[in-house]
Amino acid sequence: MQKRKRELSALTLPTSAEGVSESHRARSVGIGRAHAKAILLGEHAVVYGAPALALPIPQLTVTASAGWSFHTSDGQSDLSYTMTGSPARALVTQASDGLRRLTAEFKARMGVTGRTHLDVILDGAIPHGRGLGSSAASSRAIAFALADLFGRELTETAAFELVQTAENMAHGKASGVDAMTVGASRPLLFRPGRTEELRLGCEGLFIVADSGDLGSTKEAVELLRDGFRRHAGAQERFVDRASELTEAARQALADGKPEELGTRMTDYHALLRAARLSTDRIDALVDAALDAGSLGAKITGGGLGGCLIALTLPERAREVTRRLHEAGAVQTWLVPLKGLDNHAP
């Protein structure tokens, strides 16, 4: 806590007010927030035009603080970036590169000029590299922190495009699912060309379990694409099956059929496992969740590590959680469906 206070106290008034609106010149710190997400079904296939279902996870948040400092620029950058906790150096470097691109895009869009040095501090509970949208949530929080600092109105469309700028740099061509869901208040359905809120007819709990292993969306995308190139018709089969399962899950969610929803989730895991996007540890967690009474379970996100998501009835949640930890989960979070129909952003 003391370290956090010292970091925030270092954010001081600007050395120049150029590009800052009159009513916001006294502001020394801008704040932005976002939350985690989980893909229910449709990961990877959504890039090829298939639908996808995604859930906001309001329990896991990230807060960005942006301000000016009297730091002397090194001539190469007008930005200092700090992540709380103990992130790996490679992660900080990658995130910093995306942040610099996002900041440059923000300034160009909003007409911000001047060479004032910016300090950005990112404080969040979303584990990195687990398929929970940490990079997209961080980018969104930072975009709104910059808007708050400079006194600019940031529309949802502009926020999405700014986050996509950073996501494309970090992961290659991003589907846009993460960029939308980390700011959403309800579960979303993604179809080619449009996004809409999901109709919820089910009650139950989603349990998200962290395997402790870093995933890699970029590597997983390349692995899948390589498989498509090497096997004729593989892409069409994958996308068709993914679309079928995702549509069936959407219908089950709307119609109040949790058993059907769970079955489709487990089937989707089998699809990703056949594409070599799961891991032995994730598979063990899936088995543990199912053995403990989950209605369905699957890997969530890019794959090759990361997290599992399981659907369970409330009365089985304690046992499922216990078995997941016994099977190696390092963290678990409960996401009640009931709370996702009225969560305020």
Topology:
Elements: H1 2-9, E1 29-41, E2 52-68, E3 79-83, H2 89-110, E4 118-124, H3 134-150, H4 156-171, H5 177-181, E5 188-191, E6 194-197, E7 205-210, H6 217-230, H7 234-255, H8 258-274, H9 280-291, E8 296-300, E9 307-312, H10 317-326, E10 331-336
Parallel strand pairs: 3-4
Antiparallel strand pairs: 1-2, 2-4, 2-5, 5-6, 7-9, 7-10, 8-9
Helix pairs in contact: 2-3, 2-4, 3-4, 7-8, 9-10
Can you walk through the features of this model?
It is found in: Cytoplasm. Belongs to the GHMP kinase family. Mevalonate kinase subfamily. Its EC number is 2.7.1.36. This is mevalonate kinase. The two termini are about 25 Å apart. This protein has 2 domains: about 1-190, Ribosomal Protein S5, domain 2, CATH 3.30.230; about 200-340, Alpha-Beta Plaits (2-Layer Sandwich). The protein is built from 10 helices and 10 strands. It has about 350 residues and is of the alpha+beta class. The strands form 2 sheets. Strands 1, 2, 3, 4, 5 and 6 form a 6-stranded mixed sheet that branches. Strands 8-9-7-10 form a 4-stranded antiparallel sheet. Mean pLDDT is about 85; it is low at about 1-25. Helices cover about 40% and strands about 20% of the residues. Helix 3 crosses helix 4 and helix 9 packs antiparallel against helix 10 (about 315-325). A hairpin with a 2-residue loop joins strand 5 and strand 6.
